[in-house]
Design a protein that fits this description.
Elements: E1 9-10, E2 18-20, H1 23-51, E3 57-58, E4 61-69, E5 88-93, H2 101-115, E6 119-127, H3 130-134, H4 152-155, H5 167-170, E7 181-182, H6 188-202, E8 212-216, H7 219-233, E9 240-245, E10 249-251, E11 269-274, E12 280-284, H8 289-299, E13 306-309, E14 312-315, E15 325-334, H9 352-366, E16 377-385, H10 396-404, E17 407-411, H11 414-424, E18 428-436, H12 446-472, H13 476-479
Parallel strand pairs: 1-3, 5-7, 8-12, 8-13, 13-18, 14-18, 15-16, 16-17
Antiparallel strand pairs: 2-6, 4-5, 4-6, 9-10, 9-11, 11-12, 14-17, 15-18
């Protein structure tokens, strides 16, 4: 992010770094610093649009949280987060404190309680790219390169891939340039990048996303989700407040129209909201592992408490029937989109809390328990491939691998979503519904699938919702267990 060295550098006046022992006050200072920085950049940028090339360079910095501890005092090791492992200096840059207020307050409070030292709030040394600063102001937009009479990066900082990466969550031994260790899994600019991508791909503001996210690969589930949402809005005791769709269309009246945009985004998302973000989001990621990775790469920065895949799959066993459920307890990863970030030899374990919630939800909705539940649900390995038309190739190779893995179902998204959940420390799970049996002559054709779509989609979606509602009642320290944490972990979830 090199700016023109011949121009003087102008930055806003900001308070000096200050120590805080009150988490609410610390977050309020983060918000003050961030708003002032963005306001400075927006004002200066608006001025340049009117007056042309300025005689100065403009820069403002992300705020940061910094913690210094000299004690080896043991924290509560039952917790997987909320403390640092050893003495040192820890820091992280922060963006959008307004959006992350609850998360930041919670994480800072845990740090203060467990480390017994204050956190220091002040400006960082990481510039805020002007694109991300003006994204919060609907009255300002950055023109395309060449539309102005000066080169944008000569005057303002622009997005920089050097600070937009997953090195903290992917790596081992990561340290910041100043020698401090990471306090959180994502840097501010990585978060800003994903917030912008989320708005683009889903056509909803990231502020609407809830802590519990369902993914599906069919629009039928969206229709059932809307029907469920309207029923919840009609129930004053449900706890749900609103239903939000693409275009940020928000309804609170169960009879209100939900206007559908003329052009749906690539991954339309719908949000049944609840106080504190404790509602449910449903994202139609469509078909394929690339979409699954894109969606989870960006939703991960919101630090959801769980995400589940509830989509269709091919049943691989002759004993399965259309409409049967598959609860994944292992994954055969042939999706290939995450190989560079998470090698295929890394096991993706089932998470007991998620598995139990899903199995109990199936039992609750179907009114089958124990041995009888086996009539409609199998637990086993789910294979995810990157080739939707794998059946058209020589089957000897893929069928042999599927048999050796003991796979019971095949799709294109589940392993990607689970693997990215593992990578980003987001609790994950998969409950699929058999919609075809290609190895046994039952293909996904309109005539064969119509009755299945009518009878099973509503029940399948309700199971996912019931599981999420059960997980919502679970203490965070139990849901975010140590199973997803590596040798070196950030204090923040």
């Amino acid at each position: 992010m090199t700016l023109d060295a011949n121009l003087p550098l102008v930055t806003p006046e900001v308070p000096a770094p200050e120590a805080f022992t009150d988490p609410e006050a610390a977050v309020e200072r983060l918000d003050t610093l961030y708003r002032a920085a963005c306001r400075f950049l927006c004002d200066r940028f608006s001025e340049t649009l009117v007056s042309g090339c300025p005689e100065a360079r403009y820069r403002a910095y992300y705020p940061e949280i910094r913690l210094t501890t000299t004690s080896f005092g043991a924290a509560d090791t039952r917790l997987s987060f909320g403390h640092v492992a050893e003495p040192g200096i820890y820091s992280t840059t922060i963006t959008r404190p307004d959006l992350f207020r609850n998360y930041l307050t919670q994480q800072i409070r845990l740090l203060l309680e467990n480390q017994k030292v204050p956190v220091v709030i002040g400006p960082s040394m990481t510039p805020i790219p002007v694109h991300f600063a003006v994204a919060n102001d609907a009255t300002v937009a950055v023109p395309q390169e060449g539309a102005m009479d000066f080169t944008l990066r000569d005057v303002f900082d622009v997005p920089d891939l050097a600070t937009t990466h997953d090195d903290i969550v992917n790596g081992f031994g990561f340290t910041h340039e100043d020698g401090s260790d990471p306090l959180a899994p994502f840097l501010a600019q990585r978060i800003d990048y994903s917030l912008a991508r989320l708005a683009h791909y889903t056509a909803t503001d990231p502020a609407h996303f809830q802590n519990h996210v369902l993914f599906t690969n069919y629009q039928f589930y969206i229709e059932e989700f809307e029907a469920y949402a309207r029923a919840m809005l009609a129930d004053p005791d449900s706890g749900y407040e609103a239903f939000v769709g693409p275009g940020n269309v928000r309804i609170t009246d169960p009879e209100a129209d939900l206007t559908v945009p003329a052009k749906l985004p690539q991954m339309p998302s719908y949000h049944l909201t609840r106080e504190g973000g404790q509602g449910i989001t449903l994202v139609n990621i469509g078909v394929g592992p690339s979409n699954a990775k894109t969606a989870t790469d960006h939703i991960a920065v919101l630090r959801p408490h769980a995400w589940l895949m509830v989509g269709h799959c091919a049943g691989l066993r002759n004993s399965q029937r259309l409409g049967d459920f598959v609860l994944a307890h292992a994954y055969l990863r042939e999706d290939r989109v995450l190989d560079d970030d998470l090698p295929v030899w890394v096991p993706i374990p089932p998470l007991a809390e998620i598995q139990v919630a899903l199995e109990r939800a199936v039992a609750d909705v179907t009114e089958l328990e124990g041995y009888e539940l086996k009539r409609i649900m199998r637990t086993g390995t789910v294979a995810s491939l990157d080739n939707r038309n794998w059946e058209l190739r020589d089957q000897s190779g893929p069928v042999q691998r599927l048999s050796q893995s003991r796979a019971i179902a095949l799709d294109m998204e589940s392993a990607t979503i689970a693997a990215n959940g593992f990578r980003f420390r987001v609790p994950y799970g998969t409950l699929l519904c058999v919609s075809d049996k290609p190895l046994h002559g039952e293909l996904k054709l309109p005539g064969m699938a119509s009755s299945f779509y009518k009878t099973q989609v509503a029940r399948h979606l309700l199971i996912g919702i019931r599981a999420m509602e059960a997980l919502r009642e679970m203490p965070l320290e139990r849901l975010h267990s140590r199973k997803l944490r590596s040798f070196e972990e950030t204090a923040f979830l």
